[in-house]
Amino acid sequence: MNDTLPPVVPYIGRFAPSPTGPLHFGSLVSALASFLDAKANQGRWLVRLEDIDPPRTQPGADKKILCALEAHGLHWNDEVLYQSSNLPAYRHIIDTLISDNQAYYCDCSRQMLKNYPVYPGFCVSNDKLTSENAAIRVRVKDEDLVFEDEIQGRQSQQLRKDIGDFVIFRKDGLVAYQLAVAVDDSRQRITKVVRGSDLLDSTFRQVYLQKLLQLNTPGYAHIPVIIGTDGKKLSKQNYAKPLDPKNTSNNLYLALKALKLEPSRDLINAPPSELVQWGVVHWDIGKIPRKLGIEVHLP
Ligand SMILES: [Zn+2]
Q1: C-alpha of residue 128 to centroid of ligand 1, in Å
Q2: Ligand 1 center to residue 121 CA distance, Å?
């Protein structure tokens, strides 16, 4: 027999919050989903802090997020990666894309672009522009990009028509989120990204960059976003309340319910480690609905 089994790729998942505020219920659900999927697959679970947007970063939010994860029994493997420590690597990749003519400078103002849903390519052949006060856009190819999402099913967009050449380096001198995420998911050998479906559109950009840079692309599962009783998505923007650190068991109980698991009522007051362990044993990604918006009645 010459049959050899393909090598088993160990599962590596991640949770990657931006330290722009404390953890709220919606982000707890995302963190828990990615943790449970990793642990139910005997995987590792990493935490990465996406702190490359200083104007939006809130001092001390990183520590608060990490404390909240630990208080909820979500213990990560390895050291926490801060994206700000990778800036030279991102810069190097951006410079290479420019020198390979895969990316170009763009000095269009927000005002100039406000009536265009997709970048119309004003700067595509303007070779007079330099890094002074210009953003950098990556060229997209005239093709479809397709990926399989474990919850949302097959996803497809036409790169030129739906996305257009997009920004990888901002006019204000900051590396764009899409590039940093695409690079780090590959550098950290992430095999599966479980996160909120509000990031589905970003995934196309990240997968495109990974293909262009010949990096690994992880698998994806986008969970529906959590809708509060007011009908709005919970987020820092609409002031979702920070999680109450005195209520960790109740927070986890509700998060398990949001993920369509059915913890019995006597687990409400169980310690976080027990609730999380219960979740690992009962995790079933197939139960998560595709539809956007899991409504949760918060206390
Ligand atoms: Zn432009």
Answers
A1: 12
A2: 6
> What is the C-alpha to C-alpha distance for residues 101 and 98, in angstroms, rounded to an integer?
5
Which residues lie below 8 Å from residue 6, measured CB to CB, with a gap of 6+? none
12-84+189-295 and 87-179 agree in CATH topology: no
pLDDT at 4: 72
User: pLDDT tens for residues 214-268?
Assistant: 999 999 999 988 776 666 666 555 546 788 888 999 999 999 998 999 999 989 9
Distance 207 CA to ligand 1 centre (A): 23
CA of 133 to the centre of ligand 1 (A): 11
Pick the CATH number of 87-179 from 3.90.800.10, 3.40.50.920, 3.40.47.10, 3.30.450.30: 3.90.800.10
Fold of the domain built from segment(s) 12-84+189-295: Rossmann fold (3.40.50)
Instruction: Parse the chain into domains and list their residue ranges.
Output: 12-84+189-295, 87-179
Expressed in angstroms and rounded, the spacing between residue 79 Cα and the centre of ligand 1 is: 39
- For ligand 1, the distance from its centroid to the CA atom of residue 114, given in whole angstroms, is 12
